[in-house]
Structures are given as C-alpha cells and as structure tokens.
Amino acid sequence: MYARAFSLIEVLIVIGILAILSTGVFVAMSNLKEGRQLSSATDGVVFTLEQAKADALSGKSGVAHGVHFESNSYVRFWGSTYNASSPDNVTYDLPEDVTLQSVISGGGADIVFARLDARVSTPGTITLTDSTGGLRSISVAASGSISKSE
Fold first, then answer.
1. Phi, psi (5° rounding) for residue 149?
2. Domain residue ranges in the chain
C-alpha cells in the first residue's frame, strides 16, 4: 500500500489561501482600531466641553470657562478669552490619525461658557475626521447644550 500525502501544489494553495485571509483580517483590524480612536477622541472632546460647562455653571473661580481648538489638540482654559501662555490651561492631544476642524460663529477657535448660566456667545460645530474617512461632529448651541452625531 502507498502512504497518502499532500502534494506540493496542495500545500502551496492552502498557504496562499491563509495569506489572503490573514491580510483581510489585518486590514479589518486596522480600520477597527482607527474607528475606535475617532470615537474615543470624540468622547474626549465632548467630556472636556461638558467639564468646562459644569465649571462655568458652578461659578468655579468666579470666571467663564472654555475650550480652544487646534487641528491636532484642544485646550481647556479659564476666563472669557484663551491665553496660550496661561499655566492653568490643560492641553489634550488627539491621536495622530485624527484631525479636528472647528466651525465657530465669527470664525474663532474657542467655545466659552458664560459664568453661572453656561450660555455660549459663539456657538459652533467641531468635526473630527480620521485617515479612513470616518467623521464625527459635535455641536454646541447658544444655550450651551452639547450634542454629538456619529
């Protein structure tokens, strides 16, 4: 009797199929990771806006509180205007694949919540995008309400 074995062609076909499948899984996992980074960054911006709003509502330090936006980071600050050199600023960097664009009334880059009523004089929309084309938007109304859309 002859021993039954796999031929070289059969082994190469199986290796080729496994390579194709593993490439597909790798690409899918990369896209999933980038999607999670975008969601996490969006949640971080919303949390920072909510934190500034809460500080303004409570009258913390007797001043307004706000968030300044840049393309790859955002800064929580105290006062009615952003001062880049203030030691009280808290800067949050975005993941490298996520970029931020703000469209704020009057062309500014700041959302400032008024002390005690948290109204916003410059409402706007903050848009975050990633390298795969994913997009998330955060809207801040004049009343101070914050909402996000996926």
1. -130, 140
2. 8-149
Split at pLDDT 50, 70, 90, the class of 22 is confident
* Assessment of whether the complete model's pTM goes beyond 0.85: no
Phi (first) and psi of residue 11, to 5 degrees:
-65, -45
Burial classification of residue 111, based on how many CB atoms lie within 10 Å of its CB (0-12 exposed, 13-18 middle, 19 or more buried): buried
Q: Please state, in angstroms and rounded to a whole number, the distance separating the CA atoms of residues 38 and 137.
A: 11
Stronger pLDDT, 34 or 137, i.e. the higher one: 137
Q: Is the pLDDT of residue 82 over 70?
A: yes
Half-sphere exposure of 32 (CA within 13 A, CB side): 6
* Structure-block tokens of residue 145: 């309400």
CATH number of 8-149: 3.55.40.10
